[in-house]
Amino acid sequence: MRKTTTTTTTAATAAVKGAGGRPTHSVMASARLDLRRVLATDRHRTKHRLTSPRHRRVPALTLEAKTKASSGEEFVFTETHVSSGTEFEFRFRQENDGVLLVGSTNKASASGASTSGRGKASLVPSPSGLVQRTFFPEGGEDAVTGDYWGFSFWTFVKGVVSASTSVLGTQGLLRAVGVGAAASVASSAAINWVLKDGLGRVGCMVFASIIGNKFDDDAKFFVFLGDVMYEVGILLEILSPLFAHLFLVVASAANAFKSMSYMSRLPPRAAILKSFAARENVGDVSAKANSQDVVSGLLGLLLGIQISFLVGTSVWKSLVVFLLSGAVVCFASLRALSNLRLNTLNRHRTEIVLRRFVGEGEIPSVRDVNRAEGALATLRRIPSGGPGNREFSTVFGAPLAQVVDAACGRDVLGDLMEFYRNEQFVLALAPRGRGRRMRALVMVDPEITAESTLLALLQCAYAEAALRGRRASDVDLNEEAKKAYAAAKASFPKVLQGLRDSGWATGHVL
Fold first, then answer.
1. Per-domain residue ranges for the chain?
2. For 403, how many CA atoms within 13 A lie in the half-sphere containing its CB?
3. What are 476-488's pLDDT values in tens digits?
4. The pTM is what?
5. Are 317 and 311 in contact (CB under 8 A)?
6. What is the β-pairing status of strands 344-345 and 505-509?
7. How far apart are CA 254 and CA 250, in angstroms?
8. 130: part of which helix (H) or strand (E)?
């Protein structure tokens, strides 16, 4: 019966001698194994795993066979380079004064020719291995999460199409600014070109000041928003020849949209790439993502040049091409984001999880919640499976003035403060307009923890379920809030454990 074991050591490597008695290239050195200890085993015809293929740097080394020979025991090792996909076979003979490398074979080569003990096996990677090492994280599927591949594919498609239309945008700007005109016009064009970059950057700073720290709240939405803003910038560039007399205004607006698109995409993109790193290999994942971006950009430029020859100087033909490519970019962006399986708890995903728990008694999976959230959660209400979602809203971080108004008197406010004296939040239910619309006002401590945040949102979920379909005038909102708190407090340990068991990161709520 074949048995496989895993051994990883940092002991000194064995002395491996060639035919001339000198040390030769040894796969043992790269794996840092004590070969003498391995060769001392008495397992015959047994595969013995020496290194783990899950390690990104160390090749997978397996003892395939151990046989008796007239000159001594011989051992056959197979070394698999996970990153390049190449495989080598090495034959050793144990002698009294050391270990002799008898021969080596590149099993991936077509000829399969063996080399002598003095020779070295070719370490040139195969074409597929070269592509793997250049564009994908080392370790293949084991190095990244499952949603990486779909996201990367559609992001690549989006990059190619978007880069192709940017050629048309640049072409439109050059015509609008007056390239090829008289020297005096060209001088003015140069000044306008510089000014539009400066004004565009000012717009980018204004956008960053408005958004603030909201990038972490909904990474998917801001990536999609960045893609849309980039396409708007290209559209303005394409249309700029029609407004040549307003070049500075149109070009500055176009540059501002493109700058804001980078500002919108880069922060959440970093968080997304970090979520792919199954081995904490964030640097490798980011570097390979940049390599993919470079190739998609180059392919897009080549495609855009061909398209520019076809459309010529016609603004309307360029506009038709833009409309088609813009639709493809938006579709590819949504498909890429739909592949994401983010396990961090932002406001939208947390509300989905807690509503499902209150309604069904179970914590939904990361995949199901991301699918329900979609890429445009910021623009719409989170679906909760019923009409109550349109009637109930939560104001998390409500100011004290709103809580005072909801409490309807100092006595009630004092009762609320006393009731929540051991918590980092105070929750008050209040009507919102007329009819069945109500809202939960949650005033929080600036240093509120993730667990307290989850408890407050869980209380909101219980309150929403209890008040669904009821009028504010028909219920005692303070009593309903207390009942919801009691239910949340009782079920919170189960919720917290269920979140952890389902793979959710509970250390922080965005």
1. 16-135, 143-338, 344-509
2. 21
3. 888 999 999 999 9
4. 0.72
5. yes
6. parallel
7. 6
8. helix 127-135
